[in-house]
Amino acid sequence: MLKKYFSFLLVFLLLSNVTAVSAAEPIDEIRALIKDYYIEDVSDSVLAKPTAKEITKHLDPYSAYMTAEEFADFSNGIEQQLVGVGIVLEEDVKGIKVLSVIQGGPADRAGMQAGDIIVSANGISLAGKSVQNAISIISGKENTTVTLNYISVETNSLVTKTITRELIKLPNVEYKMLGGDIGYVRLNSFAQESTKEIVKAIEKLSGAKGWIFDLRNNGGGYVSAAQEIAGLFPNVKNGFQLRYKTEKPEIYAAIPQKVKFTEPTHILINEYSASASEMVSVSVKEQKGATIYGQTSFGKGSMQTLFPLSDNSLLKLTTARFYSPNGTPVHEVGVTPNVETAVGEELTISHRDQLIAKHKGYHKLPMLKDVPVTKTFTVEMNMKMNWSALKPEDVQLIQLGGSEVPVDVKVANDYKMTITPKAKLQSKGHYMLLIHPKWTSKNAKQMQKGIYLEVTVK
């Protein structure tokens, strides 16, 4: 019954205009739904509480009662359209944790960071409140202000900032071609149109020789979107396993897509990748559809169902736990990456490994550390070279996590050449210098192997 009801809900909630009705809360409806569908049994003493929010306060952090206005804010957050300060939130025992900060938004400009914990907004404590309740307090009309008190993740001290709310229109899917023809696609939320947007990105990057799919700081979204996105990966046939309160575990198939990522593919996750991000990551990892890079994810292995109530308010209720198709748990455990990286180095390491895989057999030279931003590279061979056959594409300098850097290649003598970047290198940047085996010596001896070396900048 629940599965049919939930499928109906997706259509109902997306196509209906929900308007607020001033009426008493449908408390008996709420109690009945919790008894029938909440993932765990709830005591009579909790169900006897006089209001919906007092009852849901005693459930898990992801179950909440929402007015029509609060649900509109919740939906807009998933679809990446909102008036607010530009932060993605999750519950925390001390208040509301910032999962990610939208680049260029008001909170970003104010200096807020992922990991900050908001303890109050406009003097109202957020301790023990749901994300939906917090959003209703933090968000508001465009060009109005909100004063946030938060614990800084960087200093562990209490910070107060007054921030002006703005209309924020977010690209849900971002993409670009990284140096060395590695396609990069970032998904910010599992929204209704996410799969179509990712397919367009893959088609735009059709020359890619490898893929990086970025789910860092992605707090989740719709289960249906996760099921579709799992179908974008090679060899992935199963989406996830769901376990409801009263039913046996059921495996849901991934929904195959006509356009897919091609091997090799990496997925990036971090401690703020949650819910649908974890659903896709754990299933793809298990079926070897991609290699996971980053840190262990958040650990939200539960699914919520939205129940419209008779007064046009809604009840968001945890109704199932999800697992990998083979039953690997996610809830309060998270997804462990195949390749663990330091925080902030996920993309750099993934891009490096993609380039190395693309150039198998190349000889690795010792890393150059802390070079100046004006570095000129010198290549010296042990025999006289026929430099006249040198082509610009035979040498590549690629910023890891970024684009190829144009260089000037000049012959110094029969043995030596120099490689000079046409612009300053980025301070603290990571690069890879590739020299492809296309050259010959004066006596026509072919270069046997390409070479590469990694470079870090002061």
UniProtKB/TrEMBL annotation:
<comment type="similarity">
    <text>Belongs to the peptidase S41A family.</text>
</comment>
<dbReference type="InterPro" id="IPR029045">
    <property type="entry name" value="ClpP/crotonase-like_dom_sf"/>
</dbReference>
<dbReference type="GO" id="GO:0030288">
    <property type="term" value="C:outer membrane-bounded periplasmic space"/>
</dbReference>
<keyword id="KW-0732">Signal</keyword>
<dbReference type="InterPro" id="IPR001478">
    <property type="entry name" value="PDZ"/>
</dbReference>
<dbReference type="InterPro" id="IPR004447">
    <property type="entry name" value="Peptidase_S41A"/>
</dbReference>
<keyword id="KW-0378">Hydrolase</keyword>
<dbReference type="InterPro" id="IPR005151">
    <property type="entry name" value="Tail-specific_protease"/>
</dbReference>
<keyword id="KW-0720">Serine protease</keyword>
<feature type="domain" description="PDZ">
    <location>
        <begin position="75"/>
        <end position="138"/>
    </location>
</feature>
<protein>
    <submittedName>
        <fullName>Carboxyl-terminal protease</fullName>
    </submittedName>
</protein>
<dbReference type="InterPro" id="IPR041489">
    <property type="entry name" value="PDZ_6"/>
</dbReference>
<feature type="signal peptide">
    <location>
        <begin position="1"/>
        <end position="23"/>
    </location>
</feature>
<dbReference type="Pfam" id="PF17820">
    <property type="entry name" value="PDZ_6"/>
</dbReference>
<dbReference type="GO" id="GO:0008236">
    <property type="term" value="F:serine-type peptidase activity"/>
</dbReference>
<dbReference type="GO" id="GO:0007165">
    <property type="term" value="P:signal transduction"/>
</dbReference>
<dbReference type="GO" id="GO:0006508">
    <property type="term" value="P:proteolysis"/>
</dbReference>
<dbReference type="GO" id="GO:0004175">
    <property type="term" value="F:endopeptidase activity"/>
</dbReference>
<dbReference type="Pfam" id="PF03572">
    <property type="entry name" value="Peptidase_S41"/>
</dbReference>
<keyword id="KW-0645">Protease</keyword>
<dbReference type="InterPro" id="IPR036034">
    <property type="entry name" value="PDZ_sf"/>
</dbReference>
